[in-house]
Amino acid sequence: MNWQNKRILVAGLGATGVSMIAFLRQQGAQVAAYDADLKTEREASLKQRFDNLICYTGRLKEVLAHGFDILAISPGISERMHDIAEFKQNGGIVLGDIEILAQTLQGKSDKIIAITGSNGKTTVTSLVGYLCQQCGLDTIIAGNIGTPVLDAYMQRDGKPADVWVLELSSFQLENTEHLNADAATVLNISEDHLNRYDDLLDYAHAKAKIFRGQGVQVLNADDVFCRVMKRAGRSVKWFSLEHRTDYWADTQAGRLKADGQDLAAMADIPLQGLHNSANVLAALALCEAIGLPRTELLQYVQTFKGLPHRVEKVGEKNGITFIDDSKGTNVGATAAAIAGLQAPIVLIAGGQGKGQDFTPLRAVLQDKARAVLLIGEDASKIRHDLAGCVPETIDCATLPEAVQTAYQLAQSGDIVLLSPACASFDMFQGYAHRAQVFIDAFQQL
Predict the structure, then answer these.
(1) Is 276 a known active-site residue?
(2) Which residue from 11, 24, 167, 270 lies 20 to 30 Å from 444 (Cα-Cα)?
(3) Phi-psi region of 311 (alpha: psi -120 to 50; beta: other; left: phi over 0)
(4) Residues 6, 144, 257, 275: which is the catalytic one?
(5) Is position 118 annotated in a ligand binding site?
(6) 144 is catalytic
(7) Of 265, 98, 103, whose CA–CA distance to 169 is shortest?
(8) pLDDT category, 171, cuts 50, 70, 90?
(9) Residue 108 marked as a ligand binder
(10) Does 355 belong to an annotated binding site?
(11) Predicted local distance difference test score (pLDDT) of residue 138
(12) Which pLDDT tens digit goes with each residue over 326-352?
C-alpha cells in the first residue's frame, strides 16, 4: 500500500502503537493517535516526540467520524469491538503492525519465518533466531517477543535483512492478511485468551492466519487443532513426540530423529523438559525450510542457553530443586512444564486466570504432585477445578509464603515449581517481577 497522504488513526498507544505512528508518518501518511484512557502526561510526551500530532480520547466511534481511511490498531484492541466492526462495514480498513510490515516487505528479498502457538513460541522464536544468526544470516528477531516489527524495520534504515524471525500472537494475526511467510508454524493450541474469543476453535482460527500465503507449513502432529490446519497444495513438515513423522522424538531411545536420520541425544540439548524436544524439532524444521544446513544447525542447538523464566532452574536447597516457570501464564504452558519434569512436584500456581478451565492440569498432576499452593485472585477457581486430584491444595496470601510452605512440604529429590497457569497483574508488575519475588524468597530460605 502507498501510505502517502492516507488519513490514519492509530489506536492504542503502547510500544506497538507508537512504532506505527513513527513509521506511518515517515511514509507520508496523515496520522492521528487515539487511546480510550489517554493520560495527560502520555499525551504531552507523544506531542514532544511527534510534531503537530493530534491526540484523541473518548468514544472511538466519534473519533472515527473525523474521516479516517484506515484504523491501525494495537494488539490489545479487538477488531470485534462494536465501533471497529461498524467502521469496517462502512468500508474502513483495519490493520495492525504485522500487516503493515507484510505489505512493506512484499516483493523484497527478505525471508520471513513466522511462529505462533499457545506455548513455546518465545522459546522457538529465540532458538530459530539464534540458529539463523549462528549460520551467518543477517537476522531480525521481532514481534511479540519484544521489539515491535516496525521499530526493527526503521532501525535498519531500508537495509534488507536475510531473514525476519517473527513471534506472533493470535491478537497480531487477527488482522494480518498478506504475511506470506517462507516458513510458518502453529506449535500447539490450548486454552488461552478465552475472554477475547468465542471458544477454542475461534482462537485456533486466529492462529491459523499465519499460514496465509505459499510457504512451508510446520505442524504439530500431536495436536488435533494443528493437524487440521494442513492446507492443500502446500509443502508440510510434521513434528511429533508420539509418532514417526518428518521430525520426531524417539523418547524410549532418548534420541531426536528426522527423515530416518539420527540427529542428537535429547540429553545433549541444554533446554529442560520433554516439551522442549518438540520446540527443538519445530525450530529445526523451520530453519531447514529456508535452506539452512542440518549439520550446522545441530551443532548450534547444543549451545543455545534457553530463556529466563521458562522452566529455569533457580537453585537447590537440601536436595530440593526450585524451578522458575513464571512465563507459564496459561494452562497449556503449565501442563507442558509439569509433564516435562520427572521428579515429584510441589506446584505454586494462581493469578488472573483469563476465563480458563484448569481441569486439564488434573491429568499431569495426578501421581506427580505432593501439593498445589495457590495464590492470586483465581485461587478458588483453580482449587475447584483440581478438587480431589492432589493430596492437598493450600491457599497462600503471598508468593513468599507459598515458597516457605512448599519448602516445608517438599522432600529431598523433589521439585518446587512456580508455573502459575495465570497472568500476574493482580499481584505483580508482570511475569518477570513475579519470578524475581520467587527467586528472592528462595534466597531467603
Answers:
(1) no
(2) 270
(3) left
(4) 144
(5) yes
(6) yes
(7) 98
(8) very high
(9) no
(10) no
(11) 98
(12) 999 999 889 989 988 878 999 999 999
193 catalytic? Reply is: yes
Q: Which of 111, 121, 237, 327 does the annotation list as catalytic?
A: 121
Lowest-confidence region among 122-126, 160-164, 233-237: 122-126
- 351 marked as part of a ligand binding site: no
Residue-range domains of the chain with CATH: 7-95 (3.40.50.720), 99-302 (3.40.1190.10), 312-444 (3.90.190.20)
pTM confidence score: 0.81
- Is 122 within any annotated ligand binding site? yes
> Mean pLDDT over residues 267-277, rounded?
85
Q: Is 319 annotated as a binding residue?
A: no
